Amino acid sequence: GEDVEQSLFLSVREGDSSVINCTYTDSSSTYLYWYKQEPGAGLQLLTYIFSNMDMKQDQRLTVLLNKKDKHLSLRIADTQTGDSAIYFCAESNHAGTALIFGKGTTLSVSS
Amino acid sequence: SQTIHQWPATLVQPVGSPLSLECTVEGTSNPNLYWYRQAAGRGLQLLFYSVGIGQISSEVPQNLSASRPQDRQFILSSKKLLLSDSGFYLCAWTRGSDTQYFGPGTRLTVL
Questions:
Q1: Which of B92, B98, B107 sits opposite A92 (nearest CB)?
Q2: What is the pLDDT tens value at each position of chain B, 111 positions in all?
Q3: Minimal CA separation from B15 to chain A, in Å
Q4: Rounded distance, CA B69 to CA B32, Å?
Q5: How far apart are CA A36 and CA A31, in angstroms?
Q6: Residue A92 sits at the chain B interface (C-beta within 8 Å)
């Protein structure tokens, strides 16, 4: 079945780069997504990548997609304390009716 | 621009009591609507989705039900709450693509 896996925790120092990794199973997903959830809040769409792209850069964010290995990563350059949050990777389900989310990676940024 | 609202923001209910959570979307028409639950320390679980008025699909068997009485209104209900219904309930919408936009969420505590 469809599944999305992420590591649960990542701890970095302010100013360092953070890399959050994700693996997925459904190769038919048109888009793959990264969402950010701050404490007590809903999910905020951070960025997404079209499945025929290898890389997408958006300011401090870089998304890398390896379709062969079904591996997606999110790199945050110059990580700030405000980046502390839970980051969810998501892919479309096979029917295209909903998103399948990973369990989320909690990013902790220390100063 | 489109906005999504959820009401209430927090709720504390005794076991066995009924539940009604509301989600409304503004600024779009005929959206697909979704209810997710996020239990503590876990990822998002898709509960229901709807592609139109009166059309509800359930992803998992459970104590909850959903209804869509109007195009931009999605309601999550229960006749008798269980302790295991506690969690953070998120509503989301999409239209014409996979990209989902989330509401601020409702924190439900069942005691």
A1: B98
A2: 889 999 999 999 999 999 999 999 999 999 999 999 998 767 888 899 999 999 999 877 678 999 999 999 999 999 999 999 999 999 999 987 778 899 999 999 999
A3: 23
A4: 14
A5: 17
A6: yes
